[in-house]
Amino acid sequence: MDTIIKTKDWAAGRIKEDEIKKYMDNGRDFIDDSGIIEKLKLNKTAEPSRIMEILKKSLAVETLTPDETALLLNVDDKDMLDEMEKTAAEVKRKVYDNRIVTFAPLYLGNKCVNNCFYCGFRSENDSSSRRVLEFNEVKKEIEVLTGKIGHKRLVVVYGEHPSMDIDYMTGSIKAIYSVSVQTKKGHSEIRRVNVNAPPLSVSELRKLKEAGIGTYQVFQETYNRQTYANVHPVNTIKGNYRWRLYSMHRAMEAGVDDVGIGVLFGLHDWRFEVMGLLYHAIELEKKFGIGPHTISFPRLEPAENTPFTKNNQNSVSDEDFKKLITVIRLSVPYTGMIITARETRALRKESFRLGVTQTDASSRIGIGAYSEGNTCQEGKKQQFFLGDTRSLDEVIKELAEMGYITSFCTAGYRCGRTGLKIMDLLRTGTEGKFCKQNAVLTFREWLDDFASPQTLEIGEKLISKEIEEIKTRIPKFYGEFINYYDRVKSGERDIYV
Ligand code: SAM
Ligand code: SF4
């Protein structure tokens, strides 16, 4: 009983109205539901020449306007759609080249005071057994993730609960960074902890920044106010649409300038949601000069004892899903785009062509599931079910066969290439200069420490090609690069340009 009262008190003090109002424009939000509907109605059709003009703008790595994005969302003509896909692929190549970043999700607990109708962790789901990992258990997870699988990046996922408050978050991040594991030829550790957490206050976000996080993600789930209210009970913290909507404003104020936004597709009309993401990006660019570092677009998946996920009116078909990936790539050309193992292997494969830049692998979303094995993969301790459970080795092999190099580079935030600096590099296509070299160095590390013989063979071929490319494209840097490369080959780790 005492615990219930304490939890209620904790929840009651979370929302800080002044940290919402200060970011609003004369009492108005940057999301205007009827304005979005109007834009989609007014921009139903366009001449092919107008669409081609818009695509040119994307290729110049300029953020599209809401009118332009609405026009793309309404394109149905097959030839035009092909043209859009082709340009999306070109934009991606220009900004990110052939690099794909991999990460693992790490769920540290499933306690949550909220009651989101779609989530297996919701407070009213009494079939879910609840647990929050202690720091020594967190370290055990990391020993497997970085020591056996070879991950260098995580997205650490927190529920909203006093047992996972800001002190728990910073303590767990410290525990994660403290683990270093001996490998075949060197050592391995987690070098970038991205965080998917509930909305925090500015002072809490400063503490996360100090703890050394990479990206801070909060998904709005749906930008549509009515749908938001329908799935997030009003008497919960998450029931406050605006506290969530301005999470990224608070992050920027706290100096966390790599932020990730997202939508849970399937709650509301997908075209409306893409417009919401665009307005969010434009707002952050306008107020802080920095757009979202990443955009995520999970689709609603079935979850244990969560009937809402089963009869969903707004589910997004594979065709529409591919289209929304294409339009996001074209509309916010500089942003990183994340697809997760919620999706099937075939769809993930296609998404890389259309614009996706990051994905997870070897994922387990049960609490303690990496170190405790398959027993924790059962529904009761996880949030939803996965569509692709392949190992990191299998995913990397497939990516290499497709010509993509897996990058474990985590240099960006450690040498100040975040926020405005990274935006400039991305927009001018010069980020690749550093990133290609670091991708090769970290891929070499991973191949030597973790690859299976088949993946090693395919990886070697790819790496030779990449080294040739560095030699011809940036000859000025080649000498220094090869020196770094040889050092990695002889067992030195975590060096970057
Ligand atoms: N508790 C924090 C929050 O809600 O902001 C973060 C963790 S939550 C576990 C991470 C994300 O998982 C949510 O933002 C939501 O988009 C997604 N999610 C929840 N239920 C899902 C489901 N049934 N299928 C797919 N994704 C889901
Ligand atoms: Fe809690 Fe997040 Fe799940 Fe909502 S989505 S119930 S806030 S864990």
Q: How many DSSP H or I helices?
A: 22
CATH architecture of the largest domain: Alpha-Beta Barrel
Largest sheet strand order: 1-2-5-6-7-8-9-10
Query: Ranges with pLDDT <50 over ≥5 residues?
Result: none
Cα-based radius of gyration, to the nearest Å? 22 Å
Task: Report helical residue fraction.
Answer: 40-55%
Structural class: alpha/beta
Percent in strands: 5-15%
Give the number of domains: 2
CATH topology of the largest domain: TIM Barrel
Number of strands: 11
Question: Tell me, what's the shape?
Answer: globular
Nearest-integer average pLDDT: 93
For the termini, the CA-CA separation is 55 Å
Task: Determine and state the CATH class of the largest domain.
Answer: Alpha Beta
Instruction: Specify the biggest β-sheet.
Output: 8 strands, parallel, barrel
Detailed description of the structure:
The chain has 497 residues and is of the alpha/beta class. The protein has helices at 2-12, 18-21, 33-42, 48-59, 66-73, 78-96, 135-149, 166-178, 202-210, 225-231, 241-245, 247-253, 270-288, 318-331, 345-354, 369-372, 392-401, 411-414, 419-427, 431-450, 453-473, 475-489, and strands spanning 99-107, 153-157, 180-182, 187-189, 192-196, 213-217, 259-262, 294-296, 336-339, 358-360, 405-407. The model has no long low-confidence stretch (mean pLDDT 93). The radius of gyration is 22 Å and the shape is globular. A hairpin with a 4-residue loop joins strand 3 (180-182) and strand 4 (187-189). It is 49% helix and 9% strand. The strands form 2 sheets. The protein has an 8-stranded parallel beta barrel, surrounded by 7 helices. It has 2 domains: 2-25 and 89-428, Alpha-Beta Barrel (TIM Barrel); 431-489, no CATH class. The N and C termini lie far apart (55 Å). The chain binds S-adenosylmethionine and iron/sulfur cluster.
